[in-house]
Specification:
about 210 residues, about 30% strand, globular, five-stranded parallel sheet, alpha/beta, 5 helices
Length: about 210
């Protein structure tokens, strides 16, 4: 096959890949990459919120790829078989209906919450922590993200607001073994709120793996 034929075949293959429907895992992976870029200062709060909203609204690979094309880790989304191993944490999305995660559940190192405009509630008061530090990336675009934590953990604020409210009631645990929960992200015409729930305490401050 000559160069023209190989080029045409390659172009057709790339077009077919771009037209493939995006999966939930692929959307979440792109959102995680955007979160890392935001934390590193490569994206402003406005850019982050805009791109995350576009990621969760994307239907095809062609719509996802440009969102990370200018980032160091940016590339076309991988096929679904490779996504599962790359997923860094749990993602909760509130589009129209609300999403709630509460009760006895294992918390990984990263949680992602996206509210547009439906509310998202993350209740960590009865959770099992698998490591000492948990980073919650919360994006509220016209919606509300509420994070509840036990009163004997450390809670830190690393977020910002654009015509919205980003309210993290910071506190420091007396016990140095206590988990540290960092809430980062952005509220754009929305609300992100994180509070320690009075009367809720972790009984085992070292339930995470050392």
């Amino acid at each position: 096959m000559d160069e023209v034929g190989r080029g045409a075949r390659s172009g057709a293959h790339q077009a077919a890949e771009a037209a493939l429907r995006a999966s939930d895992g692929e959307r979440e992976r792109v959102a995680a990459l955007l979160g890392d870029a935001f934390a590193a200062g490569r994206l402003t709060g406005d850019e982050y919120a805009e791109r995350v909203a576009a990621a969760y609204g994307a239907r095809t690979h062609a719509q996802l790829a440009p969102l990370v094309a200018d980032l160091p880790a940016g590339h076309a989304p991988p096929r679904p078989a490779r996504v599962a191993a790359a997923r860094p944490g749990v993602t909760l999305v509130g589009l129209l209906a609300g999403t709630v995660r509460r009760g006895r559940w294992r918390v990984g190192p990263r949680l992602n919450a996206f509210a547009c405009p439906g509310p998202v509630e993350i209740d960590l008061t009865e959770a099992l922590f698998e490591q000492r530090e948990v980073v919650v990336t919360a994006v509220a675009v016209g919606g509300t993200v509420e994070v509840k934590v036990p009163e004997n953990v450390t809670l830190r604020d690393a977020g910002s607001a654009v015509l919205g409210t980003f309210d993290v009631q910071q506190c420091t645990a007396e016990d140095p073994r206590a988990p540290i929960i960092v809430v980062r992200g952005v509220a754009v015409c929305g609300v992100v709120r994180a509070v320690a729930k009075r009367g809720k305490r972790l009984r085992d401050l070292r339930s995470y793996r050392d």
